[in-house]
Every structure is written in C-alpha cells, then in structure tokens.
Amino acid sequence: MTPHHSTPSVWVVYSNRNEAENLISRISDFSEGHFWDTSESETFLKNVDCHRSSWLLVDSKSSEDHNLQAIAMKTSEENEFFRCLVIGAIAPSNWPTNAIHLAANTLSTSIIDRLRNESHVLRIASSRIRHVRRLQNR
Known about the structure:
This protein is α/β, with parallel strands linked by helices. It is about 45% helix and about 15% strand. The protein contains four helices and five strands, in the order βαβαβαββα. It has helices at about 15-25, 40-50, 65-80, 110-135; strands spanning about 10-15, 30-35, 55-60, 80-85, 100. Strands 2-1-3-4-5 form a five-stranded parallel β-sheet, sandwiched between helices. Strand 3, helix 3 (about 65-80) and strand 4 form a beta-alpha-beta unit. The longest helix is centred in the C-terminal third of the chain and has 29 residues, at about 110-135. The protein is globular.
C-alpha cells in the first residue's frame, strides 16, 4: 500500500505568477501549494497519486485551456478525492462534474475559505471511506 500524505495538495493555475505565489503562501497553513507549469503535468500526476486529496485551482484566464481541462477530467476519473476549483469559467461543462465553480469577481479570501472548507470535507470523507473499506476487508 502506498503511503498517502493527509495534507491536501493544491496546484494553482493562474496566469499571473505573483498572484499565484501570494495565494500559495496564504494557503500554506492548511495545504501544500504548488505553482502549475505546463511542463509539470507528470509531477502533478505523481503528486496527486500520493496525497489523500488534491486540488486544481484555476483562474478565469486559464479556465479555457483545453489541455488543462483534459488533464483535470482524466485525473478526476482516476482519483476519487481530486477536485477542481474553477474561477470564472465560461463553459463549466468542460470541467469534471465534481468541480466547484466560483464567479470571476470572487475575492481571494472567499476562494481561500472555500478551499479550506472543502478540503476539510474531503479529508473527513476520505477518512470515513478508508475506515469502512478496512472494516469490509476484515
């Protein structure tokens, strides 16, 4: 069995690197933040695989990237506790069905609060499901 990290991994896909780095530093108290680089897709997949829950946080400018949408769909299908938080998507249907969509003018504090709360919910759900599976395997 592969050991998993319980701290959520958050990959920030922002067109403005300064905004992304600021956000990453602000979420560091409850998550492990990473800046998304297009060359990072293999690292991203390995990282998602070794964390109990992982997030892809996408800004409105990056939300229409078809390659990113394809990676998100594939990762969502393969990882039970992977989620996307998309801000200002023009076509929300291009993202996984369990993606969370926020308005384009959402404040960063609201984004961080939502991410913190949803990460906590995922952590609880993951723990419960692991416990039930352990009981079933007895």
